[in-house]
Amino acid sequence: LHNSEIFRSILSKVYSVGNDAERILYYLDKVSAQQRSLNLILKTLNKRKFEYGEIYKNIQWSFIEPIQTIVELKERPSSSCDKIWLACGLGNDEIKKEYQDRFIENKFVEYDSSLKLSTCLHSEIRMIDYLIEQNIKEVYDNDVEIGISKLPCYLCSLYIAKLNGDLNRTFYIGSLRTNEKIYPNWMFRNNEKDKIIDDIHNQLYKFIKNEVQLFQVTMRNKIDDSDEEATEVEEYIDNWLLHLNMRMTEDS
């Protein structure tokens, strides 16, 4: 099913409205990733039977320590929310009040009071970070250097592309697919270059600005007011506001 064009065509026709077809394909990709990886490994090994002994002797397993940190926020997320709204060219009107009442509510109370955000380095970035800090480079034919069992989030996909270009390596495939999610606890590698950080922040800012403006149009037209979509939008807004708050904090 994963590789079937007929199946994808049927999905696109049955679920022609909304993004249900994309969601089905995403989860199909997710649940089939391990089986497809195993099939590829077995197929590769079958072509290199004479190397079984050497391959087995050279396999090394390592557990990499996670990297976590607490970010000190210099501004309350609720204040950042007001600035973001104005930066997107949106007015202080009933739409804003409806937006706050429906999707923000008391979401930022904890962050406003503590001004702290717990963050961690996502697993795929941590693997790349380990390869860089240990000066490990065993691939010289532009093949990919890491394998992951699910699609990277939106920020990880931007980050990996930047690291590929900056270090002239292929940590992961160049034409990155992403699960399009943005997580509030996402972070950069320690001592990352300012240019890479700024480039990703700028891309994220443009993306979020477009999404917010589109969201306002959606609210004005009341295209879809279902409880299910409201829950998804609520989580989405919670995440991107925290990220832009962090961006404004770093820029201040």
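(the above was protein one; protein two follows)
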Amino acid sequence: MPHGLTIDRHDNIWVTDVALHQVFKFKPGELQPSQTFGQRLEPGADKRHFCKPTSTAIASTGEIFIADGYCNSRILKYNAAGVLLRIFPTAPEILSLQVPHGLALIESLDRICVADRENMRVVCPRAGLYTLQGKKEPPLTITLPDMGRVFGVSAKGKLVYAVNGPTSTLPVQGMTIDPQTESVIDHWAPEEKLGQKFGNPHDIAVCPNGSALYVVEIYPNRVWKFDLVQPKK
């Protein structure tokens, strides 16, 4: 059951499969994976196993981040060859995750931002691409009373775009986030005056040239396209 889809800068396709408990890398035009992470149909919590992995993020350095989300609530980082570099959170790291559902990498800030779904927030710990990982350094944390359960995150430049899902009586909406100031600088959604609104968003992606973003929903199954404009002052 494929869950997460990422296309890296070399057009490789990365797929997380929550039924197989595996993550696959497909080179362009190939039908067989060139890399496989996890053990087929074997959920687990050790270094060789996943339990319903949710999302991936791939750095320009080739390093790989995998959200082992639904059961283990952790992020695993690998080098390009697939060698495990670290697992976080790891004590005494100041970070606690509860269903990390989406990942967005901001290389210029050396941050890996996480849709920390059941904690109803976005957290951005150090990615450790260009700087030493400061285990006692708290992550950048973005949370608001109306943030709700954050299902997806995507990044362009130094901004993060996030979308929540149904959460009690809170509005279902998209958010533009400035992680450096740990603030939400804009909210957005389809125009309800036209009879349109989000139902059950599950993921989000920004197109490579940064001109648009896409929100995918389940039940109903549909994709929304939004043109990206400058955030409100």
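Reviewer note on protein two: The chain has a mean pLDDT of 93.
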